[in-house]
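Build the 3D complex.
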Amino acid sequence: MADASYPEDLLYHPEHDWARVEGEQATFGITWYAQDALGEVVFFDPPKVGDSVSKDEAYTEVESVKAVSDVVAPLSGEVVAINEALEQSPDKINEDPYGEGWLVKVKLSDPAETESLLDASTYEASLQ
Amino acid sequence: MTSTAAQSSLRRTPLFERHRAAGAKLVPFAGWEMPVQYAGIREEHVAVRRRVGIFDVSHMGQVETRGPQAQAFLQRMLSNDVRRIAEGGAQYSVMCRDDGGVLDDLFTYRLAECRFLTVTNSANHEKDLAWLVRHAGDLDVDVIDRHADYAMLAVQGPAARDLIRRLADGALPPRMRCAERTIAGCPMLVCGTGYTGEDGVELLLDPDSAAQVWDAIVAAGATPAGLGARDTLRLEACFHLYGNDLSEDRGPIEAGLGWCCKEETGFIGSEAVAAARAGVSEKLVPFTIDRQGIARQGNPVVGGGVVTSGSFSPCLERGIGMAYVPSERAEPGTAIEIDVRGRLRPATVQRKPLYRKGS
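Done.
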């Protein structure tokens, strides 16, 4: 498992999710803190392409050996892609939470919502 | 998050600093601050199945029963036939209330003709002790709390015996036997028992020796394993966990523990157990989830019943568990559905164990 890190180029939701915003689209995932607290992820139950997700509401769940956890959407929109590699290798969520462990890509319905998300240093400070 | 005040009231084993230094995640468990994992549950689980792991289980309690009537007393308290435990022998049993409800499940070792040591679940230790003392009555027997006198280590896995033998002053007791030995320079009781479905030993020793013995066994190649792996290992082996699969509201027959109940001995609860043999409405069964998902404790079984233990099996790579289901649906092969957080997950009733040693 990689060491704790919170990349500067991402936006963070207090429920331990991140968003990488690129124009009208964003990639979502869970933070290093979230995957560490959860332990080894063994299942990711993805939403379907076309599903709507709403900011601050659970849109999927990830499950470790010991526990199941809701994953909250950091922003609202429509799912346009899911990380299909996670079906075979959910452990990528632990190994590379900001890279190969991404969960979904979403077409944003309200890009202004990004204003309420946290930057890396604010999120990291909230973990203390 | 647990508050600092709550954490400071938790008890620590003599190996607490070893766990912290090894990077363990420490969690509250039955009033103790225990390592749930070190490197990761899966890795530790696989280490025990393939080689050897070491567990600190010093939270487990011990009660010594001794005196001329010790055997007669335990015969009344424990469900199994205590007369059948030879000196240096071990036996599994349950302790029941009058109505057959299970107070605890226990291993009892016979140290001498009139001296027994019973290992309790930590959450039940005080309750068990009070129950035993209360029933000792006028019998010529002493019931002694030995929890503070013992640390307890479990060394489990196909390579466990070879590893311990190299550190020991003599041959190890076979399975279901116990013997006094010196290991890594420390005297202790070595028991051929465990809770993983693998071969191995459990060591009962002076808490002051625990760190020295732990270090020697880890240096010899055992992987430190936490309560997380202990739980997935025991669940694959279909061993009961008190508080999950056993409780005072359930009897040993519905729990599938009729094999350790010998009603002819007249133990407390034997009449209720004998009556239950005629038929019970629910039975505890192991199950596997057919496809995705992991059932957890408390998930309802569709049509009646409840999951009492559920986790991910690192060996079978799918959700497994144990559930009480209506007796007519307890046959291995029966298709059931489990309501996992609002989603129905198809599952299949299996035979015990879900994982067999060496498979």
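The first strand of chain B starts at residue 25 and ends at 29.
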